[in-house]
Amino acid sequence: ADTHLELDRAPTEVRDLAQAFNMMLGRLSAAWDQQRRFVSDVSHELRTPLTLVHGYLQSTLRRCNTLSEPQREGLEIAASEADRTIRMLQDLLDLARADGGHMRFHIERVPLKDMIVETVEMCLYPSDRVNVDIQATGFDARADRNRLKQVLINLIDNAVKYSEDDTVVKVRLKQEGEWAVIQICDRGRGIPTTDLTQIFEPFYRVDEDRSRATGGTGLGLSIVKTLVEGMRGKIKVQSKPGEGSIFTVSLPT
Ligand code: ADP
């Protein structure tokens, strides 16, 4: 008899549960929106004074020829940190915008071969450092040209940054069914398996990099992932410590 009663009550309980769940979801989403707005406002507000600080530091370094070596060194470090923080704020702004669905994508047919070659040339790496290997030509991807360029630059920069100067970074392009597949392969130090699932999280850096004072922000890959997914593409990574990494971006054709 008890079970029967339970069953009788079930629909109401389920409804109550669903209502409570929806209410929680609503609150969660409002909190999320608030957090996003906060990040975006703070980044925006901080960028202006920091740009000013950076400008003054640069002009002092350029104009003042009475600086002692330690003074110059100190100012150079300050300028480079200001510059890194400005980039980080810009990245945070981008992320907050994309996450809130406020980033506009201008999707068009992009001839991938030309765009990859153009991007690699634009980055001015030594000619034997980045090698482009196009296996299929004459097909386009549906993507946002500028955002895709940003994705490629980020991934190629990482591949160059995290591998030795005497190794080659390969950028491959092939077609797989409905997908245009771009791979960025390096023979660098690789990423430990335990870090692999997290490297696309904002601010995540593999231990060794986290302790380095200068360099990256740990935001690059989370932006890359957001941009790729915003273009209805997919991104994955394979890596073996000590052997290298392959980042694969697939875009609809
Ligand atoms: P960062 O600004 O630190 O480069 P990213 O978000 O671009 O931030 O990358 C996150 C972390 O993932 C890096 O700090 C680095 O530890 C690791 N990583 C990214 N790309 C590579 C790569 N090609 N080879 C080895 N490690 C990489």
Automatic annotation (TrEMBL):
* EC primary class: transferase
What are this entry's molecular-function GO terms?
A: phosphorelay sensor kinase activity
Outline the extent of the HAMP domain.
2-33
Residues folding into a coiled coil are none
Q: Which UniProt keywords apply?
A: Kinase, Membrane, Phosphoprotein, Transferase, Transmembrane, Transmembrane helix, Two-component regulatory system
> What is the superkingdom listed in this entry's lineage?
Bacteria
Transmembrane helix: present as a keyword of the record?
yes
Identify the EC number(s): 2.7.13.3
Q: Where in the cell is it found?
A: Membrane
Which GO cellular component terms, listed alphabetically, does the Swiss-Prot or TrEMBL entry include? membrane
According to UniProt, the reaction catalysed is: ATP + protein L-histidine = ADP + protein N-phospho-L-histidine
Q: Which residues form the Histidine kinase domain?
A: 41-253
Coarse class of the primary localization is membrane
Signal peptide range: none
Q: What is this protein called?
A: histidine kinase
Q: Which organism is it from?
A: Leptothoe spongobia TAU-MAC 1115
Which span of the entire protein is present here? Answer: 213 to 465 of 465
